[in-house]
Structure prediction request, 360 residues.
Amino acid sequence: MTATAATVRRGLSDLAIRNMFVIPTIVFLILINIFPLFYSLILSFADYSAVSAKPPDWIGIQNYRELLRDPHVWESLYITLKYVIISVSGQLVVGFGVALLLNRSIPGKGTITTLLLLPMMMSMAIVGLFWKLLYSPSWGIINYLLGLQNFVWISNADVALLAIAITDIWMWSPFVMLLSLAGLSAIPKHLYEAAAIDRASRWFTFRRITLPLVTPLLLIAVIFRTMEAFKTFDLAFIMTGGGPGTATELIAIKLYNMAFPQWQTGKSCALAYILLIMIIGISNIYIKYLNKAKER
Amino acid sequence: MFRKLSAKYFEPISMWIIILGIVSLCQPWVLFLHVYGFLIIIIGLIGFIFFSHIKPLPEDVEEE
Prediction:
């Protein structure tokens, strides 16, 4: 085969691939991701409103200073932390529990697993809307099943956050279940057999064999769910819109209200960066523990 | 020596500073802690990024 024929058969040269695919992708990535990231960082140090004709005015860290002294932001951060703790721990317990149940030979295991994964595949907006109907005080099925006559869920400041967290747990426990199931099915059976020969109790087997070997995958699930829970917007916005009052005003809803209805673009960019730094901090810690768990 | 100290003390301390910062930022009781929580997170994060990139030498790992 001649060199020319080989080139024709091979198709595009490396240079052509670079020009046609790699460079446009990098340019697209810079325009869509990197540029807004840096532009918003600059705006977070400026007095700027996107609807105003005035150009951004550099004010240093004043936005950050004002935000960190704002009692509403403080309250929103506390609400978000509560929501993250309830939601992620709930998902971990339910997801891991269901995975333990499914990690045995039962008839129709595949079908059950697929059906359990359905909530995760649904749109957040749809889930929010139909859980709002399920929570309805007069004809919602939840009150009917629990025997709570006209108990108000969504409009009750004491339980509205819990109601949203329950919806999130319902939706995302299958994700934790899926990862846990992958971890559980990878545990070698001979470890359990050796434990059985040594007459180890079920609790001891769980604590010393199951849990350590599933931990890396569980940590991955926790990382993803924690990051998502910190950013939760759509579910809470559709179900309660941040209300009643400010009872469910998560930090993402606060950010939205600041950025759009109030058009405080500079300040909202600063709040977004506060949230980003928090998430980076948490993720770093989780990743560190994940690597440690893998080394073990 | 510094590498050893970094892996054994500075990196874990930075992690705890990040945790302290997050708790300070989100806790509902003390405004002072909330105001400085973000700064604490940044200090911890910079420390963590710096110290986690200083790996102990292979001979130090073998000694342990």
User: Anything to note?
Assistant: DSSP finds three helices and no strands in chain B. Chain B touches chain A through 21 residues (CB under 8 Å). Residues 4 and 59 of chain B are 11 Å apart (CA to CA). Chain B has a mean pLDDT of 87.
